[in-house]
């Protein structure tokens, strides 16, 4: 990134259309793909070494008849555990040392009337990575991975389909969700009756919601109204009163102090709306290296990389 | 000046002449006038012919010396003339005065005779007078001693009469006592009291006095007894009269006034309290059995007679309740007639006795009026407070909104009767408290009306909902039945809309009527013949704050609020309210915005001419609120209807296996349903909203645009998408297209017309269709099926929207996206598509 060169390596995927890719947090050579080959959906583990993608050996794991569409790595782990969401099952896989073998260690099944299907899922980075949140239709459910049982359920979280979820990286009970009702909602999973906050900025379905990894007041949402919106949700972030000021800094001078004071009442607001895309934006993601960088991908194949506006960056930092 | 000077000259000449004549006469008579100085002046000149020192010799010499002959001749003739005239003057004067002198002499002579006669008569008179005086002195001397005797006798007579009265007094008092003619006794005693007091040192008088005292003590005793036990008297009015008589007599007997006041008041209190208890008994409409028994034990009256069956069963008690719970007018009437009137009576008699009376009498010095007044005030305030609490309790029970006139009349009567108290007792707080009660009751009533209006509104909404639900069921049934029932669909769909305008008009009319009737009944509070209506509160604050703000304005606000709640509550549950209701309410709110609100407020302002200029909610803000509510409802309607159609489309896309589908033979039933539903929505909306403007298009626009859409661009796109060399072109083409077309806001707010609403709904549906298509993979026939479907939609949907290009663009996108997602993109021949669509 330093010299603004994006390396491009093409890896030929023989099997079929890729629906989802997930990279192992531990080993950068390992990633998962989720693909469908005409009708049967499988997921594949592939170990590859970046300089030479050809020498890849893949572990193909077939989830049977189930159509797998989402694979989640354990966020803080050593790349040993993976969850795949397939239809109405959440399967927890244990990987072997060499990532060549995977065995199903436990499953959780959602049961109910009609054809239930997980549409999205997220592995919570908190509680020693023992929680999983999934979305099906209009409900959001939380699962305890140790017992594979449901721990909470937000019925009617959205008026229509829930499209995506994300956990606040710093506040363990806070969860963001987005859906077809054009809304982004923030939940405290301890009280699932009412959302903590609701944003209604988009004019069509919201496909993706992402917290910034380090500054959780920054929330990125992508919608099929071909807009990407960066919001600054100060009031429900882990730093509701701005960056905590050290005592030493305080003692330095009055001016500093006053400045801090003037900065404190930051309000929840939309920072900016990005309209570079001409078609529906389906994905948005923060850079894992630079907390001020983010990318969005739209239907027309356009990938847009943006930075957080400088003014806001300084306000958050200083 | 000259004339005046001439005049003065002539006058002076004339006066000079007259003086001359005068002077000559004076000379003649030897009279000396006051003016000595002119004589002295004149005397100085011996040549002055008129002067006293005239020397003819000197004068003649002078003339002779100075004058010529002619002059002398003239002088001589002049002189002769003057002498002649003087002579004649003298002669006339002598004649005139001679006559006068003659007559004067005659008169004097006559007078002399008369006086002489008078003198004689006067002498005679004086002699007579002397004789009379003499006689009179002699008579008075003889009558002297007889006169003194008569005077003595008359004095003795009066004394004897008095003594007789005194001696007879005990007997008379006794007799009075027997006859119970207390008043007479007291007045007799009063007359004698002083005398007896004075002569008490004489033994005989002492005896009489003692007797009298004994009798009067007895009398006082008897009066007191009568005073303290007046309950024997059944009839309240006469009892009060008797009582006052007693008190009057006792006062005259020098009983302590304060004690009497207390006694009087305590007695009055006991009577008034029994009235209050009667009222209280009436207030308890649902008495527990024990209290009812109490009541029946206490008063063997009608209430108890009615009350006794209550003990049997709750059913009878419920039957009984309206009868025992007399209506408020009756209650207030009774309160007024019994309590207030007897209170007034007590006040008047009390004032008569202790205050007015005392002021004139000797009691005034002892501060009794003030004391009595204070007692009276305390007494009245205390009782009135209890009465008011009862009245207030009763008024609070008056929950029903039905007959406001009764309440108003009751309040009016209540207020009017209190005015009487106010007149009697000017400083009392009673009338103010009464007014406060009336005000409270009025505001309470207004609140109740608001509640009633709100519940009426909700009820009518429920009615509307039910009315809507009945025909809608058939629509729902048709949708469940699926494609097969699509012929019946529009017909049954149309049933609901036909009643929509009727429902709307009946709803708004009934609400308006309700408001009017409420206003009319509230208006009673300010009617001219109601006494409290000209209180400042009812003139000002009640009209503006009470009626306008807290009744009318808050009702309108409530309507808007509840409408908005429909949007919000339904938002999460996905349309628990029927969309037609949303549409109806939206139109209702819009009507409110355009006309109804201003009408209602004008009506209110007309009926309640508020003189009081407190800040009131302006019409514009209410209108804005109504408009906002209407907008929200309509947006929500679009959203809900769009959602229904999108759900249908989404299900149809998601549940189908698009890869292994067969070659399309006809349009899918879902698309027909979509078109049908859209048509019925169009009809529904068209019933309530105007057409609106749409971009001009020719009558054959479906054909024309279709050909453009299919032949030129689509063909190019399909060709591009399945020749591997040209993916860039496709992207470029679509991107360029997008660059020039406006960005479409899918869930944007709509305008208040049919076209805009329909555009919104269709936009939402097609966008959903697009997004769903992008998530699927298509086989060759899958793509062709989408083509057919899109063409079908194209044929029918353009007519609903304001800008048909929008539909074309979205359908283009759908077909394009499905071509992208197609494994084997081989589009269908345009002519075949047309044939299929026309057949289906």
TrEMBL record, chain A:
Biological-process GO terms, alphabetical: protein ubiquitination; regulation of cellular localization; regulation of transport
Basic and acidic residues composition bias: residue spans: 254-267
Residues in EIPR1-like beta-propeller domain copies: 10-230
PROSITE patterns, per the entry: WD_REPEATS_1, WD_REPEATS_2, WD_REPEATS_REGION
Keywords: Repeat, WD repeat
Stretches the record annotates as Disordered: 249-269
Keyword Repeat found: yes
Name this protein carries in UniProt: EARP complex and GARP complex interacting protein 1
Native source species: Acanthochromis polyacanthus
Lineage: Eukaryota, Metazoa, Chordata, Craniata, Vertebrata
Name of the coding gene: EIPR1
From TrEMBL, chain B:
Job description of the protein: Involved in retrograde transport from early and late endosomes to the late Golgi. The GARP complex is required for the maintenance of protein retrieval from endosomes to the TGN, acid hydrolase sorting, lysosome function, endosomal cholesterol traffic and autophagy. Acts as component of the EARP complex that is involved in endocytic recycling.
Gene Ontology CC terms: cytosol; EARP complex; GARP complex; membrane
Coiled-coil regions listed: none
Pfam families hit by this protein: Sec5
Subunit structure: Component of the Golgi-associated retrograde protein (GARP) complex. Component of the endosome-associated retrograde protein (EARP) complex.
Exocyst complex component EXOC2/Sec5 N-terminal domain location: 49-283
Family stated for the protein in its record: Belongs to the VPS51 family.
Cell compartments where the protein resides: Golgi apparatus, trans-Golgi network; Recycling endosome
Organism of derivation: Acanthochromis polyacanthus
Broad class of where this protein is predominantly found: Golgi
The protein's name in its UniProt record: Vacuolar protein sorting-associated protein 51 homolog
GO BP annotations listed: endocytic recycling; Golgi organization; Golgi vesicle transport; lipid transport; lysosomal transport; protein transport; retrograde transport, endosome to Golgi
UniProt keywords, alphabetically: Endosome, Golgi apparatus, Lipid transport, Protein transport, Transport
Top-level taxon: Eukaryota
